[in-house]
Amino acid sequence: MTAGPRMNGAEALVNTLADQGVEVCFANPGTSEMHFLAALENPRMKSVLCLFEGVCTGAADGWYRMKDKPASTLLHLGPGLANGLANIHNAKRASIGMVNIVGEHSASHLKYDPPLTSDIEGLARPLSHWVRRAESARSIAWDTATAVAKASEHPGQIATLILPGDTAWQDAGERVLPVAPVPVRRAPDQARIDEVAKVLRSGEPALLILANKATRGRALELAGRIAAGTGCRLGSQFFTARIERGAGRVPIERIPYAVAPGSAFLKDFKHLITAETREPVAFFAYPDKPSLLKAPGTLVHGLVDADEDSELAFEMLIDALGLRDTAPLIQQRIETPVPQGALNPISIAHAIAAAIPENCIVVDESLTTGRESMGLTMGALPHDLINNMGGSIGYGTPVATGASMACPDRRTFCMVGDGSAMYTIQSLWTQAREQLPVTTIIYANHQYAILKAEYANMGAGTEIGPQAMAMIDIDNPRIDWVAMGTSMGVPSKRVTTAEDFHKALTDSVRADGPVLIEVLLK
């Protein structure tokens, strides 16, 4: 244990966060958090104002995806936490580490049931791995260090610390901290390694499905050696937290989103081998369609559990297969010509493939228009791809904000549909305030186009009636995205052709700060 100088509870909290390696706080404060706000004057902690709590929690998600270390959020009481829960859900499904600081009334005030009183623990617990209410100023440093340690585990964890106002302003005494544990990733079981090695030696068609830490770094390179040496294919779920991809990287095939093409993709595999993920499952239940996408008789083998070390598992598997000298599969560079003419999913994908700069971060929330994009950008310059693991809409622009904060020397492309963008459009304001190099690409088809497809998939009817269509159409009134971005300080433009879209993308790469491009689809 270590001790430091005396300070109030809020100062002890911020200093402990900084001591434990937390560099940034994405904040939307209220009255009960004023002492925490004062403590953020600490030069070791970057504080970032977000105009909606869902932007705070989404930005913390994006930070972790690029840094592999947790950020903190500051949320105002139960309603503030509730506003941030959708992106906490997305973060939890993506195995993100995050420390949420939630303000609370002082203990002496709670007994009067003031209007903002709520069950904060009850709100936090379903989407948090660890929840604690600070009982006194003297416990805050210990509580904070424990929260950061929990968030830093593998896989990443959601830690929520509730901060009553009186514990923030009272004297914290000597700051006492637990000895921080070193995060350890468990080694996989040797029997599982041997079983999978036997499967791969059999020559039967096999797909190795990668997720979380297995889709990047040395783990991905080792997976590429396994694929090269055994003939198995490498795949990912349709949504993956972060993939390193493009020219010079090990290529991973993406299992299609819809049930029919997903099942068709998997039908010829005898074996599915999972690394930090589970077998592919349909996103929703549909009448007369299966929930599991594998063919009858396909065997599923768990190689790496979620809390285990993929890199170590692949090294063990390579040793078992005798592939130490095998070179990995590598994606070759594909020079995509600049497209011309009408905007459609293919020409849009070609424009992106031709424009992606080296080491770009690509955040994708464009399920309808962008569904073609990822297959056609495999040979682009090396980049990182981030997807929404939880399915709650409004993750794209906040995650892009946090990812760009984490990597300000890299351009971020954020692809988002117009319906999704309206959930957390406040992200643009934070991007402008922080002058973040984010290119926000709004696909403006003026409807929730994905719901049109789902209406048919669900068998709800052969034609969409006027009342149902009114719940899908967002064209009345039409949103002016150029005006929206400009109003928040982001230079914005509208494009109507593929060549203009490509030029706008390449121009944005040279910009000093954020840019918005409205891709007008009709």
TrEMBL record:
Limits of the Thiamine pyrophosphate enzyme N-terminal TPP-binding domain: 7-111
Keyword Metal-binding set for record: no
GO molecular function: acetolactate synthase activity; flavin adenine dinucleotide binding; thiamine pyrophosphate binding
UniProt-listed InterPro entries: THDP-binding, Thiamin_PyroP_enz_TPP-bd_dom, TPP_enz, TPP_enzyme_TPP-bd
Name of a matching Pfam family: TPP_enzyme_N
Organism: Sphingomonas kyeonggiensis
Protein name: Acetolactate synthase-1/2/3 large subunit
Family: Belongs to the TPP enzyme family.
Keywords, sorted A to Z: Thiamine pyrophosphate, Transferase
Domain (Thiamine pyrophosphate enzyme TPP-binding): residue spans on this chain: 386-519
Gene Ontology biological process terms from the UniProt entry: small molecule metabolic process
EC number of the protein: 2.2.1.6
